[in-house]
């Protein structure tokens, strides 16, 4: 990151990086396939941690597991804030790195989609609902992360993340605890109606239901 700051991304070569790190070119390529990988070296490890957290859940705790997984990702950026901020500034300037970042985001979304899809099983629209939930989770995380990065890491983003995830949970809570498919009865009455008259009218309506 220091070399990229000093010389520019395109102007910095693998040989430059190896020399600054005090290793050979071959040693560099034993760790990274390219200099792009040296900027994004942590996604494989993060995806492994997320996969382990999701697999440790049950159908009753699936949404909790997903939100925990998102917090793991955000904490990784916050715990190494200096590198995260420098990487953010660099990625904004280099189109090839932006494309790489988009591809990395897709890997997280695919992992969430596969987990939710397995959780929903053969329920109606399982594939569609899994895709929508995965996209919503990733969007919530990315919106909070971008806000924190743009602010220079000046605040704790855990509160905003909880707030954003609240929207996701409220939207998809019914996937964890499916609602009764029976109709809901909504009735209105005059204020002058007695409690007995209200109950009698509701009972009459329920007794008239087909089947």
Automatic annotation (TrEMBL):
InterPro entries tied to this protein: Homeodomain-like_sf, HTH-type_TetR-like_transc_reg, HTH_TetR, MftR_C
Work out whether the entry's keyword set contains DNA-binding: yes
| UniProt-listed Pfam families | TetR_C_14 (PF17754), TetR_N (PF00440)
* Alphabetic keyword roster: DNA-binding
- For the keyword Transcription, the answer is no
What are the residue boundaries of the HTH tetR-type domain, all occurrences included?
1-50
Query: Where DNA binds (residue ranges)?
Result: 13-32
Q: What is this protein called?
A: Transcriptional regulator, TetR family
């Amino acid at each position: 990151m220091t070399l990229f700051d000093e010389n520019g991304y395109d102007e910095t070569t693998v040989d430059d990086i190896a020399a600054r790190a005090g290793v050979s070119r071959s040693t560099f390529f034993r760790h990274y396939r390219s200099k792009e990988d040296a900027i994004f070296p942590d996604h494989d490890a993060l995806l492994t941690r997320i996969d382990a957290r999701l697999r440790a859940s049950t159908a009753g705790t699936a949404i909790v597991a997903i939100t925990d997984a998102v917090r793991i990702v955000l904490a990784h950026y916050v715990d190494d804030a200096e590198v995260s901020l420098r990487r953010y500034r660099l990625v904004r300037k280099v189109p090839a790195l932006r494309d790489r970042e988009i591809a990395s985001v897709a890997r997280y979304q695919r992992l969430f989609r596969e987990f939710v899809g397995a959780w929903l099983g053969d329920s109606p629209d399982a594939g569609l609902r899994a895709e929508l939930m995965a996209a919503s989770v990733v969007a919530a995380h990315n919106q909070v992360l971008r806000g924190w990065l743009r602010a220079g890491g000046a605040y704790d983003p855990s509160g905003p993340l909880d707030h954003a995830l609240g929207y996701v949970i409220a939207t998809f809570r019914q996937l964890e605890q499916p609602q009764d498919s029976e109709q809901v009865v909504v009735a209105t009455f005059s204020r002058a109606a007695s409690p007995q008259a209200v109950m009698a009218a509701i009972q009459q309506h329920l007794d008239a239901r087909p089947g």
